[in-house]
Specification:
This is Tol-Pal system protein TolR. The chain is an alpha/beta fold. It has a domain of 74 residues: Nucleotidyltransferase, domain 5 (2-Layer Sandwich), CATH 3.30.420.270. It has three helices and four strands, in the order H-E-E-H-E-H-E. A four-stranded mixed beta sheet has the order 2-1-3-4, covered by helices on one side. A hairpin with a 5-residue loop joins strand 1 and strand 2. Helix 2 crosses helix 3. It is elongated and about 105 Å long. About 7% of the residues have low confidence.
């Protein structure tokens, strides 16, 4: 009995990480499923109460307009009476922002225009590099 010695087993201090991996995979699937829903939409900062006037010392604004038929126009100082498509409007806005990057951009839409046309215009302006877009309003009578 002398030659036989009992060996003490060292205690194993490991954490079972399988449940944590399972939780992380479930969270990953949830985020992957909700990410496309979150990224859709156009961010618009709505006024809290009454619309504010543009500051007097600001640059002359670029006015992107939509008439009742859904045609797009861009007023860059000299009066423009011809309609442009969205791609041409984006190019014109980019050219103007290269020369005057501080110029505010304002959307002027007819009261009877389709909501989709306004959203397409605002998405086009955002893609053209416009940091923020204002909405032109008329005071209530």
């Amino acid at each position: 009995m002398h030659g036989y010695q009992r060996r003490r087993r060292k205690s194993v201090a490991e954490i079972n990480v399988v449940p944590y991996i399972d939780v992380m995979l479930v969270l990953l699937i949830i985020f992957m499923a909700t990410a496309p829903v979150i990224t859709q939409g156009v961010k618009v900062d709505l006024p809290q109460a009454q619309a504010e006037m543009l500051p007097e010392d600001s640059e002359r604004p670029l006015v992107a307009s939509i008439d009742a038929e859904g045609r797009y126009f861009l007023d860059v100082g000299d009066s423009r009476d011809e309609a442009v498509d969205l791609l041409e409007l984006a190019t014109m806005v980019q050219d103007q922002l290269r020369t005057t990057p501080e110029a505010p951009v304002v959307v002027k839409g007819d009261a009877n225009v389709r909501y989709d046309a306004v959203i397409q215009l605002m998405a086009t302006l955002k893609a053209a590099g416009v940091p923020s877009v204002g909405l032109m309003t008329q005071p209530e009578q």
